[in-house]
């Protein structure tokens, strides 16, 4: 199966937004710091998420991003789909030309698996992930780490 970092990072970043946003815009710099995802990469992902109506942007001081829908209305599959990522277990990226231009013996098996995985991820919402104890524990640890980094004194050289 092929799910690249684009899909994984998009899900991670929008889950971070759902956990920390709570009605206030969250900057991509904050998400970048907590999740160790490059800011420029997040900008690309959030542009796609915004175009698909999953997030909205708020400009100006204190700006950032908000979820455009309730967490219960955003599935993991919709996030992956929004960044043009495919969940594809086939060797041919679903085209059916896997064996010298024709369909291979197991193409339909892997295609069916791709559909099952997509359906599975479509049934999982951000809200469900937000309520998982492991997710809450990790988010708390990341927030604490980000807070400690923000208050570290700057060393002055003489």
UniProtKB/TrEMBL annotation:
A Pfam family that this protein carries is: Rrf2
The record, for Gene3D superfamilies, names:
Winged helix-like DNA-binding domain superfamily/Winged helix DNA-binding domain
Q: Does the keyword DNA-binding apply?
A: yes
Alphabetized GO MF terms: DNA-binding transcription factor activity; double-stranded DNA binding
Q: Which UniProt keywords apply?
A: DNA-binding
The question of whether Phosphoprotein is a record keyword is answered with no
Q: Out of the domains of life, which is the source?
A: Bacteria
Read off the SUPFAM superfamilies from this record. Answer: Winged helix' DNA-binding domain
Q: Name one GO cellular component term.
A: cytosol
Q: Which PANTHER family match?
A: HTH-TYPE TRANSCRIPTIONAL REGULATOR ISCR (PTHR33221:SF5), WINGED HELIX-TURN-HELIX TRANSCRIPTIONAL REGULATOR, RRF2 FAMILY (PTHR33221)
According to UniProt, the name of this protein is Fe-S cluster assembly transcriptional regulator IscR
Origin organism lineage: Bacteria, Pseudomonadati, Pseudomonadota, Gammaproteobacteria, Oceanospirillales
């Amino acid at each position: 199966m092929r799910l690249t970092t684009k899909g994984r990072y998009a899900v991670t970043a929008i889950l971070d937004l759902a956990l920390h946003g709570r009605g206030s815009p969250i900057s991509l710099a904050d998400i970048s710091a907590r999740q160790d995802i490059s800011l420029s990469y997040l900008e690309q992902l959030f542009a796609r998420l915004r175009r698909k109506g999953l997030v909205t942007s708020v400009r100006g001081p204190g700006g950032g991003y908000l979820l455009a829908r309730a967490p219960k209305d955003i599935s993991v599959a919709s996030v992956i789909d929004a960044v043009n990522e495919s969940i594809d277990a086939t060797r041919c990226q679903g085209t059916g030309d896997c064996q010298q231009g024709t369909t291979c013996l197991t193409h339909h098996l892997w295609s069916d698996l791709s559909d099952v995985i997509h359906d599975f991820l479509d049934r999982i919402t951000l809200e469900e992930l937000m309520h998982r104890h492991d997710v809450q524990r990790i988010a708390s640890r990341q927030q604490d780490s980000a807070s400690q980094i923000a208050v570290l004194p700057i060393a002055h050289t003489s």
